[in-house]
Amino acid sequence: MKLGIQINEGPYNHEASVTALNYCKAAIEAGHEIFRIFFYHDGVNNGTRYSTPPQDDINIANSWSALAKEHALDLVVCVAAAQRRGIVDEGEQERNGKDGNNIADGFRISGLGQLIEAGIESDRLIVFGD
Amino acid sequence: MATKKFMYVNRKAPYGTIYAWESLEVILIGAAFEQDVSLAFVDDGVYQIAKGQDTTELGIKNFSPTYSALGDFEVNKIFVEKESLDARGLTIDDLMPLKWEDEDEDWAEKDSIKVISSEEMKALLDDSDVLLNF
Q1: For residue A125, which residues of chain B lie inside 8 Å, CB to CB?
Q2: Burial of B109 (0-12, 13-18, 19+ CB in 10 A)
Q3: From the CA of A12, how many Å to the nearest CA of chain B?
Q4: CB A98: neighbour CB atoms within 10 A?
Q5: How many CA atoms lie within 13 A of B125 on its CB side?
Q6: What is the pLDDT of residues B2-19, one digit of tens each?
Q7: Would the CB atoms of B130 and A119 count as touching at under 8 Å?
């Protein structure tokens, strides 16, 4: 089955991201295809490489990056939500005159159309969050 | 591209969290994709389309006028759960009169909002292809 994933909550504050991470791993293992993972609302905070949790805690951003690399996943951070919350890639840095960027490996910033497209193209859209 | 039945389920109060406002942003962008779009307002979500919203003292943006533009984006199937209204002492008269113009009937103005029971809401959700919960 082709799956679209939407993640609406920030890492650490809410369990939704880790549940989604585990869900994605299990889905891939079971032979399903993940069309796209779309990060929305505070979910965009999954995509900062500046997150530094204590060493005995899971590094959620790195876990997404590793999973994306291993399985060539499309991790998309919503641009409007990202701009509000300070998630920046090189393009956004230049466009908005910021002094740096913080997007984690394997993530890209794009528009909400990517979420709608995931709804259209996937057999199921699974939403994680409250 | 295939046409699917998109259902946006709005469950939260308009202010206090950003879910309602960012849901509306998805709806507006999604309207450009020529899908079959419906909106549901349940639980505290019914307050999103309540009349007379004033956020002056909150110091944040009052985005409620944007709902009135939905008709222009051909988003005109708006379902409000009766039980959610009843539980909050609201009726349809407490909601903004959201309208759309029917091109096939000489641009006659029609109501977009339909109040339905939770049983009917259940059937509608069952019948949708893509559920976006906010």
Answers
A1: 130-132
A2: exposed
A3: 18
A4: 13
A5: 18
A6: 799 999 999 999 999 999
A7: yes
